Amino acid sequence: MVVKTATYSGMNLKGEIRESISLDEDDLSDVEDEVFIRDGKNGFKLAEELNVKRPLMAPRRRSGKHESGSRLKPRPSCRAWCKPCCYVFLSLSVLIGLIILVVVLVSIYPLPLDRLKDWIVSKANKPRNRDDRLPCSSLKITEIWAINLPNLTTDSPVRAIDVDNDGVEDVVFGFGTGENDHVMPDDVFCPIFMGMPPPCNGGIIALNGRNGDTIWKRWLNDTIFGVHCTADVNLDGTNDCLIVGVDGTIAVIDSRTGEDVWMLNMGKMNVFVANFIDDRNGDNISDVITSHSYLEDKTSGHIILLSGKSGREIKRVQTPNRSKTFFMPQLLKQNESSLMVLFGTGTPNSPGNLSVVPINDLESLENKSITLYEDKFKGVLTQPALADITGDGVPDIVASMYNSTVVAIDGKSWNTIWSYTFTNGVTDMSPTPAFFNLDEVPDFLVVYQKYDSIFHYNYTEVSLRLTQFSPRTDKDNARGWSGFLSIPCCNNLYLSEIP
Predict the structure, then answer these.
(1) Percentage of the chain with pLDDT > 90?
(2) Which of 75, 176, 312, 339 is the most exposed place for a label (fewest CB within 10 A)?
(3) Distance of alpha carbon 466 from alpha carbon 438, whole angstroms
(4) Residue 284, by phi and psi: left (phi above 0), alpha (psi -120 to 50) or beta?
(5) 284-314 in b/e burial notation, b at 16+ Cβ within 10 A?
(6) Which PANTHER family does this UniProt record tie to the protein (predicted)?
(7) What are 319's strand-pairing partners?
(8) Starting from the edge strand earliest in sequence, which strands make up the sheet with 159-161, in order?
(9) What values do phi and psi take at 433, rounded to 5?
């Protein structure tokens, strides 16, 4: 221990300040520095105030260990920052690489979500013994032939039938030339615009399936919109075609020659929608069932049976409530002894029903018919699809109503299985049944037309209804997707091959 006494010359001894401090050797510099830092407020005066010159040596900093933390630390080098940055960059590179790898693998080997679902569900359910048919992941289309049919329009279905007996199916469809008969007479329009004498308002044509050449063309005084080639009426070994026109024409055409077997023309005010059915008059030739409405009469609906051999009327019955009908009658076979006729009534602006009646009770249509679906505002216009979705061996009824509703009805009990409603849509197209996923229940493609009242344009909405059915529960909220499809209008006909 050292005792140090500081005395300054020129000072009054009465005001002498003495300080006796017990210090270690490490704190000597602190005491010496106090001479230069204490002021008179604490009882001390600076040397300048006492006429004493300040020492030339500046106060030394304290070198005690307790101030080491207050010193400035050196900045870390760049190398210290590079290491974590490299780790982050490497992790991001690996993550991006994995994402790119997954995208490439999915694009090369697409896997439907239904497959993933089947894998998950198959762990809990017993495996089913069935032949799984995987969908095509890519299609290659090869054009076989293409032809142009100038000045012709068509709203007719295209039917495939071998009309020239060469072993290759040919193409048969109906056509029209527009609503020109309302603009100018046929004897003026046909020579000038079609280069031929009347009739030239429409007809039916057969094209060679090998090269697209015209086999025959039958001109008529009507636009043909309905074609069915499912019965051999003249017994020549080839199915003939039942055709229906917009101006009341109904006829059977020999598919080999294009000549008519018989033809009825009831005039523009009569609307027919017809199809072949099995023989009903005992001549062993398929007959024709048709719906009929008279446009000028609000209550004029009929179901008519015609002889397939001659076109003679066999039976005519009034629809329930005398409602108009533009629905093509269908036959639904419940069993070997029960054959039902399915028909619809109503117009786009009047109420209608979807009903069924045994074919043997057709004469008592109003009393024997069973109503399956009723709409109090719009009619039932389009044929439903008949497909077994319940697994009981009886075709069920899946109908797309004009009022934006798709409904499935059990073909055995007539109970509603499920229904689905679109928003503000109309349709004149039947549902298309197919297997779109990997189960054994038919699915349905539905097309609805919509009109946008804000932007004033029409568009078509295509929806895929994936149906699921269990004997205990009805899966009304089945999965589905919807999209938009733009269908261009043209007068070219193409035949393509998909290998």
Answers:
(1) 37
(2) 75
(3) 10
(4) left
(5) ebbbbbbbbbbeeeeebbbbbbbbbbebeee
(6) IG-LIKE DOMAIN-CONTAINING PROTEIN, PTHR21419
(7) none
(8) 159-161, 170-176, 202-207, 214-220
(9) -80, 140
Q: What is the distance of C-alpha 416 from the center of its chain? A: 24
Six-digit token string for 256: 């080999």
Q: Which of 271, 261, 264, 273 minimizes the C-alpha distance to 231?
A: 261
Q: Which of 95, 98, 227 is nearest to 160 (CA)?
A: 227
**Mean pLDDT within 312-336:** 90
Q: What is the pLDDT of residues 332-369, one digit of tens each?
A: 999 888 899 999 999 888 899 999 999 989 888 888 89
Q: How confident is the model at residue 298 (pLDDT cuts 50, 70, 90)?
A: low
User: Which among 475, 473, 424, 428 is positioned nearest to 450, based on CA atoms?
Assistant: 424
Q: pLDDT tens digits for 385-401?
A: 999 999 999 999 999 88
Q: Decide: 357 and 365 in contact? Cβ < 8 Å.
A: yes
**With a threshold of 0.70, does the pTM exceed it?**
no
Q: Which two three-digit tokens encode residue 91? A: 């992790």
Contact 343, 401 (CB under 8 A): no
Handedness of CA 32, 34, 39, 41 (dihedral sign): negative
| C-alpha to C-alpha distance for 483 and 466, rounded to whole angstroms | 15
